[in-house]
Amino acid sequence: MQIDAGMMVPRIAFDLYKARQPLGAAIVYADLVGGGASSAEIYGGLGAALLDCRGVLVRKPFEEWAAKVFARGAPTFPGTPFEDVARDRQAQIPAGTPSRPLTDAEIPAMIEFLVVNEAVLPDAVAALPVSDQMSAVMALGERRNPLYVPILRAAIVGRYGDGAGRSALKRVGSFLDRSDVQASLVIAAGSPLAEELGPYLTSLLPRLPAGWDAPRTSACPPYQGPSRIDIELASAGPSPDRCAAILEQQLAATPRDARSWVQFAPCVVKRGATKHDARVLAGALREAGATVSLAGPDDAAAPAAAAAPAKKPWWKLW
Fold first, then answer.
1. Residue whose C-alpha is closest to residue 156's, from 120, 180, 139, 121
2. pTM
3. Which residue among 105, 185, 208, 289 is least crowded, i.e. fewest CB within 10 A of its CB?
4. Which range marks the domain in which residue 37 is found?
5. Is residue 310 classed as helix, strand or coil in its secondary structure?
6. Contact 169/156 with Cβ under 8 angstroms?
């Protein structure tokens, strides 16, 4: 089935907003703006979604981003149904908030700010009516953006049903070199949905890198994420089986991949994790006796952080 993703993606963003998933909606709208889309609907939707992400304890960052978005979209609002909406929502932004237009260079930082953890988008799609989940997988998968790989992986392993799984398999081809995507294919092949996915799943096998399903003789390449924190397992410690189980659960890894990381440590198990996901995984592994280090922007949690509780980040408060 061919779709016009350019027409469907704004609708999917709005559907997410209606489903009370403003963070997921804001990410999709922001991706559209980053891809060159420019309309009153998109700017109005992004600004409104950002404002609806505000929490009791954290408001200012979302208000600042929303002010920039409304300023960028100002030329598109007059004479449209979104003119009144934009005016009403802008009135909710505190006076004195900087309101220069959002620049193209700021969009990647805004998306990274919004992707609090990798569950945000898969969970947002799961909140849609079942009849709309497959459409979301199709439309977002058509963008061939690594940002949406977590949705494709969730669909492939059956989170949204067999129809969405087939749609994801038809659109995951750009990412077949990724170990995390290959893991999802392995999981799907052993799931109750395997028969339903049949030809869609088997058609991908000839396109996979040679040896993709062979026994590991070294550490599995790190799984990939949408942010910038790298997680290195330096040592599995006294409980390698427990460590492997944690890696399986938190990275949606296959047993083969998890065992290889444990066996061949030190190795990087995840590249591009969000701060939230990195801290959660590192905390669980350290509790099991493993030695873990994180590296990336701000060195989100240096190895020494294991000895003292880190200050609670703002994005865990809203």
1. 180
2. 0.90
3. 105
4. 5-116
5. coil
6. yes
